[in-house]
Amino acid sequence: MKYGTKILHNGHEIDPHTGALSLPIYQTSTYHQFDMEQPGKYDYSRSGNPTREALEKTLASLENGTYAYAFASGMAAISSALAILKQGDHVIATEDIYGGSYRILTRFFSKFGIETTFVDMTRLDNIREAIRPSTKVLFLESPSNPLLKVTDIIGAVNIAREHNLITMIDNTFMSPYFQRPLELGVDIVIHSATKFLGGHSDVIGGAVITNSEKLAKEIYFVQNGFGAILGPQDCWLLLRGIKTLKARMELQQRSALEIAQWLKAQPWVAEVYYPGLPDHPGHRIQKEQASGFGAVLSFATDTVERAYHIMKKVKLWSVAVSLGGVESILSYPVKMSHAAIPKAERERLGITDRLIRLSVGLEDAEDLMEDLRPE
Is 254 a catalytic residue? Predict the structure, then answer.
């Protein structure tokens, strides 16, 4: 079965009780037990819900995984995956990581004695050099947010296996349509399902997927214990959004490449970051480990004033946080997604006041380019 067909026909799309092509929203908190000697499959919706189970099984299928867990947000998913660590453990993470991930690692988990070293993972030796006896997790984000740096995932996994480390990756930018890290040997895949999986900017959600029974049990313990679950209505919205994943990703990627190529030719653009461009440093690796380059790109204007002018004048681009919706979204990382990272660190990484991140939607690419033109 081709992957595009699998999105719609993965074994979890039809209600087994009625044949409905849209899974019901089981809007319930608890379940009657007909026989206390033989309790039913569900007892309390924090622990399990039929709508959430259908979503989780769909997510596992899309990542070619075995176990999946749906959370109340992408950050709930990231935090819950990291919560399998214990005091004294050490994490190595991608340096230009999503600001929320940076914040939770440096300002929350650090309170519990969990340390993090941020490294440029485009050079695998940086990972080797950062490993300590206490290192337990290698946390990847590829392509990274917002500079679209590409990590050699297989190379990173090989290093992790040499040192018995757990590999986790935030796969939000690519979605499972373009990149399936479990197939590359990664242990845990994480998504902000709010983005491309949902695809319509109308739901907040997160997901964690793994093939490891041991890790699955630990993640479920956190999900059930913390209770940061995704409600049934939001699970249903994600199930609905996933049905159009192929169509959206294909069109959005096509427009993203067209816009990136156009930006490269503009005199007011200093730099374009998009792995789909042949001269991007990670182009070859991305082409080998994924089937696409995604619909997110960033660019730096020639001046800060130019960046602000563009943000004030655009009519088609929504100036907002988030990404992955059917509408095109323009974000300003220094004030939005990466505001939690100290200014000096942002500037060292290249996340400057001139950097704009684009999430390309379904509008006509020509209209989107004209809307960005600062004149």
Answer: no
Cβ–Cβ contacts within 10 Å for residue 262, how many? 18
pLDDT in tens, 126-178: 999 999 999 999 999 999 999 999 999 999 999 999 999 999 999 999 999 99
So what's the pLDDT on residue 344? 85
State residue 16's pLDDT score. Answer: 87
Q: Which of 170, 187, 234, 353 is catalytic?
A: 170
Based on the fold, state whether residues 306 and 212 are members of the same structural domain: no
Measure the CA–CA gap between 54 and 202, rounded to whole angstroms.
Answer: 19
Q: Please indicate whether residue 177 is annotated as part of the active site.
A: no
Tell whether 231 and 252 lie within a shared domain: no
Is 209 within 8 Å of 198 (Cβ atoms)? no
Give pLDDT, residue 338: 85
> Does residue 111 have an active-site annotation?
no
pLDDT, tens digit (0-9, with 9 covering 90-100), for 209-232: 999 999 999 999 999 999 999 999
C-alpha dihedral (13, 16, 18, 22), degrees to nearest 10: -20
Range of the domain at 285: 246-372
Catalytic (active site) residue 234? no
pTM > 0.90:
yes
Q: From the candidates 6, 46, 254, 264, give the one annotated as an active-site residue.
A: 46
Which residue among the candidates 26, 67, 98, 332 is catalytic per the annotation? 98
Domain boundary among 183, 215, 242: 242
- From 195, 246, 248, 346, the catalytic residue: 195
Question: Which residues make Cβ contacts (< 8 Å) with residue 342, sequence separation at least 6?
Answer: none
